[in-house]
Amino acid sequence: MTERISPTGTDRFPELISVVLPTHNEEAGISRAFDTIGRTLDDCGVRWEIIAVDDGSRDRTFAVISSRAAEDNRVRGIHFSRNFGKEAALLAGIHAARGEAVITMDADLQHPPDMIPQMLEAWRAGAKIVHGIKRQREHDSMVMRIRAWIFNKTISWLGGINIKNSSDFKLIDRVVVDVIAQQLPERRRFYRGLADWVGYKNVEVSFDVAERCDGEGKWSLLGLVELALTALVSFTSAPLRIVTFMGLLTLALGLGLTVDTLWSWFHGRAVSGFATMILTLLIIGSFIMISLGIIGEYIAKIYEEVKARPIYLIDESTGFDR
Fold first, then answer.
1. Which range marks the domain in which residue 262 is found?
2. pLDDT by residue (tens digit) across 180-193?
3. CATH code for position 135
């Protein structure tokens, strides 16, 4: 167990570890998460706090958090005024965390708490970031596995960041916490990508995705698509280069059609190819619309950043007055 010397130089006490739990409609399982994570941290011999961020739940999630915070001064809760998304909930928890290291994980316990000791060991050995990497997802349906594979492959290939089988299950050192919370002002965030982008010394620990204990999964296909677009626009301009490629391809098609037309005219044949013309126009039109869509995504992100609205709004909090 690592110890720190107090400012007076006389007392010694274990380091403080913060755990951030983004929650949304987790009334059924949040108490189990508190119990399991708390026992694990006690076994590790550290001081700890759990910060549960309620992302605008429609059930009694925050009431359960408040009740536990009243019983245990190591539990704190934040309740958003509405649903701002998981990325905002993670950031709010990171902002509120006081620990020398911060662990971010899901409240449904699919990120296994028994991996925390291994993450702490890697951190104490010098790692600034410990990435939880999914080894297998046998409890997920085939559809969920396929869409997760497509998501990770697309972001890793186009975005230039390594998120293969990565998750929001991470341990980040206070140095990284301060960078993410204070020096990265962007509003549309992708936590997994930012944790890789900052570039501090990092290690990976593998885990098997556990079966969800209570409730239902929150990620929809539309939500994953939106997250993927945010990740791509935030970390790469590759889609804009795709627009250039489509323009060059359209030029090549146009030149080919021009050569065919001139060849037919010089040889005294009637210029044919009505179907070819129609297909060419359809292809060009599709390329134009796709290009406008890609450019529109970047303009939309610029628009969101320029508005400079808060990333989240807190309706109430509990446990922070102690």
1. 238-307
2. 988 888 878 888 88
3. 3.90.550.10
Find the DSSP H helices in the chain.
30-44, 61-71, 86-96, 116-124, 142-159, 174-178, 191-197, 221-235, 238-266, 274-307
Same domain? For 255 and 205 the reply is no
Which amino acid does the sequence have at 44? C
| CA gap 3, 184 in Å, rounded | 30
Please state, in angstroms and rounded to a whole number, the distance separating the CA atoms of residues 322 and 314: 18
Examine the domain organization and report whether 210 and 273 are in the same domain.
no
Which tens digit of pLDDT belongs to each residue from 90-138?
999 999 999 999 999 998 888 899 999 999 999 999 999 999 888 765 5
Task: Give the distance, in angstroms, between the CA of residue 9 and the centroid of all CA atoms in the same chain.
Answer: 40
Rounded CA Rg of the chain: 25
Q: What are the tokens at 322?
A: 């102690």
Which residue's structure tokens are 């961020």? 53
The answer to whether residue 97 is domain-embedded is yes
Q: Is the residue at 149 inside a domain?
A: no
289 and 314 in a common domain: no
With contact defined as beta carbons under 8 Å apart, do 123 and 16 qualify? no
